[in-house]
């Protein structure tokens, strides 16, 4: 048997972190992964996309978050060391997967993926397995190590315990982003006692479980998730910026497909307009390059593209009203027609956004196979599903709350210099 790869740095490296205070790196492999250009690229991708238009502090990046998930995983494994069910030879695998789990995220992933029909999980896989610096570093451990890291991230790895540390209902990923997003947005939700949770986590055959005595700390964590979803992640103003962003990508793609001549040709996006795009092209994208195009597209001849870019950059967002398309079937074609009469293309300026389109995952036990419920381990050694023990969790479990909002440029509709009558009709119909 070959000796497991465990080269240590001569001196521990320490990152200062506002959420976890310090992030500790002792493994040479982890240090070298952080130094790859694919990982460094995450410094140029914000963690919360367009949330900064709502909460101006939310400028933190996927780089910060990835380091945080690594640090929490490192601490969980310190607690697991020497306990039954945990095999410490999986340590480096879990740490690498934690660090790299978001490496495939691109600029403003949510909108980008929707318009260009790609998926950050696929890119993560390609970055880990393809011709990249990350792949080279991982290969030092063994020829099958990159594949194992990809499998953990994709939740297909044979040892489900390893997967559940990074991805489950209570995992290192969520524990980091809830606290980090709360810290950077400045909201007062999102806080819970992670130290306590780390002390009551126990490894079992195929999952991490929680000692029953830690139930109240977990309740707090579930509540903070619930509140963060509605107060931060689904914030209607953020969604307005997201709507405009998607429409910019959509317009640019459509113009390209109709042979429009751009003043400033979007070379960086060509391969995505065509299809999936190559890994190299994808790695060249970040928010800096994306915002560069938005900046110069403000001067494009195409009125829709330039207007949307002006709106996005200067935060002239769309306003919204509650609007359930299922209940207002008759108004919808009428609105579209009125928008056309007011010289607004409804494909770009009249948008229904439903929050259930977004990843909505506060506690709902058993909804998807891979979303294992949280199990408490009671003193007899038996497992009990959390919502059966906790009234607080039971009260918010399994309740799907969807909200529908209609987004449109109210500033334009209020400008009565042109199309006065039709704009008044629209405002009456929307009650604004
Ligand atoms: Ca993540």
TrEMBL record:
One Gene Ontology biological process: dGTP catabolic process
Matching Pfam families: HD (PF01966), HD_assoc_2 (PF19276)
MF GO annotations: dGTPase activity
Top-level taxon of origin: Bacteria
Gene3D superfamilies for the chain: Hypothetical protein af1432 (1.10.3210.10)
Residues covered by the HD domain: 62-178
UniProt protein name: HD domain-containing protein
Bilayer-spanning residue ranges: none
């Amino acid at each position: 048997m070959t000796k497991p790869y465990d080269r240590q740095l001569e001196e521990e490296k320490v990152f200062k972190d506002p959420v976890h205070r310090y992030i500790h790196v002792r493994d040479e492999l982890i240090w070298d992964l952080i130094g790859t250009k694919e990982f460094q690229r995450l410094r140029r991708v914000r963690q919360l996309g367009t949330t900064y238009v709502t909460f101006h502090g939310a400028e933190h990046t996927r780089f910060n978050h990835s380091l945080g998930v690594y640090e929490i995983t490192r601490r969980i494994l310190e607690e697991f060391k020497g306990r039954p069910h945990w095999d410490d030879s999986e340590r480096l695998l879990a740490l690498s997967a934690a660090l790299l789990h978001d490496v495939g995220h691109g600029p403003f992933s949510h909108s980008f993926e929707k318009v260009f029909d790609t998926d950050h999980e696929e890119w993560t896989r390609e970055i880990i397995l393809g011709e990249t610096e990350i792949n080279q570093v991982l290969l030092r451990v063994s020829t099958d190590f990159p594949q194992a890291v990809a499998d953990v991230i994709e939740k297909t790895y044979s040892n489900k315990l390893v997967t559940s540390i990074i991805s489950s209902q209570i995992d290192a990923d969520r524990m980091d982003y809830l606290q980090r997003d709360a810290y950077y947005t400045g909201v007062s939700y999102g806080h819970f006692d992670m130290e306590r949770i780390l002390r009551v986590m126990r490894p079992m055959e195929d999952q991490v479980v929680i000692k029953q005595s830690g139930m109240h700390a977990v309740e707090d964590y579930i509540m903070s998730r619930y509140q963060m979803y509605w107060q931060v992640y689904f914030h209607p103003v953020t969604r307005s910026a997201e709507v405009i962003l998607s429409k910019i990508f959509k317009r640019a793609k459509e113009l390209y497909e109709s042979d429009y001549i751009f003043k400033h040709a979007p070379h960086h996006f060509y391969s995505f307009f065509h299809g999936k795009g190559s890994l190299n092209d994808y790695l060249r994208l970040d928010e800096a390059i994306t915002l560069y195009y938005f900046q110069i597209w403000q001067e494009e001849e195409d009125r829709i593209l330039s207007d949307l870019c002006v709106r996005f950059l200067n935060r002239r967002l769309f306003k919204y009203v509650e609007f359930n398309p299922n209940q207002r079937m008759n108004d919808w074609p009428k609105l579209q027609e009125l928008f056309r009469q007011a010289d607004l293309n409804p494909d770009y300026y009249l948008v229904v956004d439903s929050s259930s389109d977004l990843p909505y995952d506060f506690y709902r036990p058993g909804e998807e196979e891979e979303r294992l419920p949280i199990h408490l381990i009671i003193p007899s050694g038996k497992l009990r599903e959390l919502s059966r023990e906790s009234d607080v969790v039971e009260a918010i479990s399994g309740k799907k709350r969807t909200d529908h909002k209609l987004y449109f440029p109210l500033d334009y509709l209020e400008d009565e210099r042109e199309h006065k009558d039709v704009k008044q009709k629209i405002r009456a119909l929307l009650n604004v």
